[in-house]
Amino acid sequence: MKAAVIMGSTSDLSKVTPAVDILKKYGVEVNVRCLSAHRAHLGLSEFVNTCSTDGTEVIITAAGMAAALPGVVASQTVIPVIGVPLSGSVLDGMDALMSIVQMPSGIPVATVAINGSKNAAYLALQIMGISHPEIREKLQAERREMEESAMKANAQIMADFS
Question: Long-range pairs for 143-151 at CB < 8 Å and ≥24 separation?
Answer without folding.
Answer: none
